């Protein structure tokens, strides 16, 4: 009987939370000890596949490739093979993608600084190091707890929004989403609301 290891299935290069990730699922009848090795190439060096050091002989079925590609405009692809003992499966390739047009955003993390008569809101973005300079904006929603009436603010990533709380009562909630303009305008989901009680003394 000829024993062979079936290749990984559903090999996909996708983006999630500012990362580029290769995902796959185990080939049919994969043994429990199967591991995977990933290589990639991008369109500026088409002649050779390059090893991904952090994705060699890994048991998991995904590999983060964000900072492997030389820049965000160049399309890249990856391939993965399964290994078990002496057996190796054939390589399976993903499609080509580039970061610039395919990136999917994560919501910003809101940092609230509550002072006596104002709240200062800053947004921090969970970006991988190689794309720290993306020019991102954020849209901020502000509302009083229990009210449907939301005020919207928009700012670039380094901007802070200052809200005068003198005339405001009770508890105030904030939520924001990231905005990125590539080929079209992209938005992340809104972040989980953060609420702060305002204790105004008369």
TrEMBL record:
- Organism annotation: Scytalopus superciliaris
Gene designation per UniProt: Ifnlr1
Q: Which GO MF terms are attached to this record?
A: cytokine receptor activity
Q: What Gene3D superfamilies has UniProt attached to this entry?
A: Immunoglobulins
GO cellular component terms attached to this protein's record: plasma membrane
Q: Which PANTHER family did the record assign?
A: INTERFERON LAMBDA RECEPTOR 1, INTERFERON/INTERLEUKIN RECEPTOR
Q: Domain Fibronectin type-III: where?
A: 4-108
Q: Which InterPro entries match?
A: FN3_dom (IPR003961), FN3_sf (IPR036116), Ig-like_fold (IPR013783), Interferon/interleukin_rcp_dom (IPR015373), Type-II_Cytokine-TF_Rcpt (IPR050650)
Q: Which Pfam families match?
A: Interfer-bind, Tissue_fac
**Record lineage:** Eukaryota, Metazoa, Chordata, Craniata, Vertebrata
Could you identify this protein by its name?
A: INLR1 protein
């Amino acid at each position: 009987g000829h024993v062979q290891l079936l290749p990984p299935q559903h090999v996909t290069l996708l983006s999630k939370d500012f990362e580029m990730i290769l995902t796959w699922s185990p080939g049919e009848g994969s043994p429990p000890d199967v591991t995977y090795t990933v290589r990639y190439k991008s369109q500026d060096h088409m002649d050779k596949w390059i090893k991904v050091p952090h994705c060699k002989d890994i048991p998991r079925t995904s590999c983060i490739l964000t900072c492997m590609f030389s820049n965000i405009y160049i399309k890249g692809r990856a391939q993965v093979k399964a290994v078990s003992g002496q057996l190796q499966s054939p390589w399976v390739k993903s499609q080509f993608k580039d970061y610039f047009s395919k990136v999917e955003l994560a919501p910003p993390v809101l940092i609230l600084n509550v002072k006596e008569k104002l709240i200062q809101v800053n947004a921090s973005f969970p970006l991988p190091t190689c794309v720290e300079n993306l020019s991102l904006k954020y849209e901020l929603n502000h509302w009083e707890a229990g009210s449907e009436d939301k005020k919207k603010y928009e700012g670039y990533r380094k901007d802070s929004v200052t809200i005068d709380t003198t005339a405001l009562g009770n508890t105030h909630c904030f939520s924001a989403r990231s905005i990125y303009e590539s080929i079209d305008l992209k938005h992340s989901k809104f972040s989980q609301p953060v609420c702060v009680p305002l204790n105004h003394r008369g």
